[in-house]
Amino acid sequence: MKGIILAGGSGTRLYPLTKIISKQLLPVYDKPMIYYPLSTLMLAGIRDVLLISTPEDLPQFQSLLGDGGQFGIRLSYAAQPRPEGLAQALLIGEEFLQGEPCALVLGDNIFYGGWFRRNLHEAVKNVSAGCATIFCHYVKDPERFGIAEFDGEYRVLSVEEKPARPKSNYCITGLYFYDGRASALAKRLRPSRRGELEITDLNRMYLEEGRLRAQVLGRGFAWMDAGTVDSLMEAASFVETVQNRQGLIISAPEEVAYHARWISREALLRAAEMYGKSSYGEHLRRVAEDRLLYEGPAKERI
Fold it and tell me: Which of 27, 45, 193, 220 has the highest count of CB atoms within 10 angstroms of its CB?
């Protein structure tokens, strides 16, 4: 299974912060925003990842992340000249995917909560059965999002993009799992009124086939879309609070890789040395020395 991170766009909602730097390279408390969606894919067991961004921003991502070897993964890169909808990522990534199942995550989405790894693995199982999976979270302003409607057993009844009269308060977050037909189906999409290839329309194709599943992220789970100044600050404050209370780091790719045994203890220590005296580097050193931190319950929330 492969992964795609869509980290393109102009980031105009964050101007002037993003006039000269990609939104996904901005810090969310102590690490670049891109570390969070990358860690999400890695928690799902995905080691082959394509990062899509603007031609101007790609060199900065490559400078930060390299070929992914330090995380025990393989990173590839592709340009998105113009943002033309989320489903466009599956067209840009068609050659990379080569008909394999994939997970698509937006570069500004942050997930945190207990049992998240289990939610991800359920989505992987759904893909093996030829089904797509969306991840849904309760919001108080559903008219701003793509919305999923459920029956009493949380089976998906409908999906709708930014409805004037939402049928539920469960928004569809920026994390999607698809079978190997995703790129082929995306080719059948036509631009919406906004001139975009809507991911909701792709999800509706799976729904009409009876092949759309949902993972509902309930109480105690945090999902953040750090695409505005306010949400960026809220995300940073949340990460600061959790990390300082728990003494752990959220979304450290090296830690995820070490737990998965994709990198050795020696490689983890080299990464810690690279980060110097920062709190991030100190955490990696603690992970390398503390067996309980490596094997204990905290691994569910990495």
Answer: 45
Sign of CA dihedral 299, 64, 280, 174: negative
In the structure encoding, which two tokens stand for residue 254, read together? 């090296």
Read off the pLDDT of residues 74-100 as tens digits, 9 standing for 90 and up.
999 999 999 999 999 999 999 999 999
Q: What are the C-alpha distances in Å from 10 to residues 32, 63, 205?
A: 17, 20, 29
Question: Do 50 and 146 contact (CB within 8 A), yes or no?
Answer: no
Q: Are 178 and 132 in contact (CB under 8 A)?
A: yes
pLDDT value at 298 more than 60 = no
- Per DSSP, the residues of 211-268 read -EEEEEE-TT-EEEE--SHHHHHHHHHHHHHHHHHHS--SS-HHHHHHHTTSS-HHHH
Q: What is the pLDDT of residues 159-211, one digit of tens each?
A: 999 999 999 999 999 999 999 999 999 999 999 888 889 999 999 999 999 99
What's the rounded Cα separation, in Å, for the pair 164 and 278?
A: 47
Nearest CA to 109 out of 86, 84, 132, 142 is that of 86
Q: How many other β-carbons are positioned within 10 Å of the β-carbon of residue 4?
A: 28
- Kind and range of the H or E run holding 31: strand 31-32
What CA–CA distance (Å, rounded) separates 138 from 124? 22
Distances (CA, A) of 169 to 132, 172, 210, 220, 242: 21, 10, 22, 17, 26
Strands 102-106 and 170-178: antiparallel
243-283 pLDDT, tens digit per residue, is 999 888 999 999 999 999 999 999 999 999 999 999 999 99
Which H or E run includes 208? helix 199-208
